[in-house]
Automatic annotation (TrEMBL):
Keywords: Cell membrane, Membrane, Transmembrane, Transmembrane helix. The lineage of its organism: Bacteria, Bacillati, Bacillota, Bacilli, Bacillales. PANTHER family: CHROMATE ION TRANSPORTER (EUROFUNG). Its main location: membrane. This is Chromate transporter. Belongs to the chromate ion transporter (CHR) (TC 2.A.51) family.
Amino acid sequence: MNQKVTLKSLLEILLVSTRLGFTSFGGPVAHLAYFHEEYVRRKKWMDEKSYADLVALCQFLPGPASSQIGIGIGVIRAGTLGGIISFLGFTLPSVIALILFALVVQNFDVSDAGWIHGLKIVAVAVVAHAILGMAQKLTPDLQRKAIALFALTATLLWQTTFSQVGVILLAAFAGFLLFKQQRSDEEKSFSFPISRRFGAVCIALFFGLLIALPILREVTSSHWMAMFDSFYRSGSLVFGGGHVVLPLLEREFVPTGWVSSEAFLAGYGVAQAVPGPLFTFAAYLGAVMNGWLGGLFATFAIFLPAFLLILGTLPFWNQLRQNPKIKGALMGVNAAVVGILISAFYFPIWTSSIMASIDFAFAAILFSMLVFWKLPPWMIVLTGAIGGTLISFF
């Protein structure tokens, strides 16, 4: 896709990503489903294979995978500026909501509200739809079905920080062995307005900051530098999605006394109630410590590693995915992603959402609205919130 960047294309990215930012409830796996529905099925900005390859790439990288995928799609569409706008649209709604919660209503307990439970059931319907679509495309033969089954079983039984990375590496090796002689259809190539030199600079800056910030923290004794180091390091060392970053942040800020345990847990409950990436929990913590400016500063610090990594790797993506030695490995990784999605569909999405037969019935209704009646995702989200509120009265 070699497309001239125009104000119209940037505005379109902003509108689409902001709509997703307001409606993408359910965590990182659900975000992949919302992205798939919007960018692949509706907008057709990417084909199924390219989207799956981008998901596979971001699964390899530390940081918030769904945010990195959104940035990558924006870059593919309209260069670095498109990636920034895509990120802002998807992230700012939850950042603003969490800063307001921290400043105004952080003492309210909304974690058990009925409408939140309804939004969890929405995630069940959305993820189920995405899994069906991706499984048809990415696991068409018995070998890839077996890889997906292995990924499903391993990630359910071996739930550690690095389990997804280990499973993906094994799947890549299996795919290389099974499919290295197999020719696939001609790949659609994407043109990135990012040079390899710029990508290399981003990678070097990522590692440079990771090494330099703890040193600067000790030398300067600055509160803001300490905050930047803690959030940047937390964003750099997380594999496996937003929930993994919570214990890292807790260890950084609660023992130091910067945030009380009660305030941390209250913010965690609020973070479950807002759409968008869970990494925006940093905005809440920053606002508790230093007001709205601290919230914005913390958001910048925790997402900066994700930006540097995706901008650093994208210029090399076409070469990697079109290399005959890499194609088979990617076929294995894509199959593993299906298994990982099914695993996450069961735990934590299904286990935290479907508590009774009425929940399952409501999930079936939402799934039918999405798949058979093809209603837009925002309508599914609204129906889920209303339905969850009604269910809470039974």
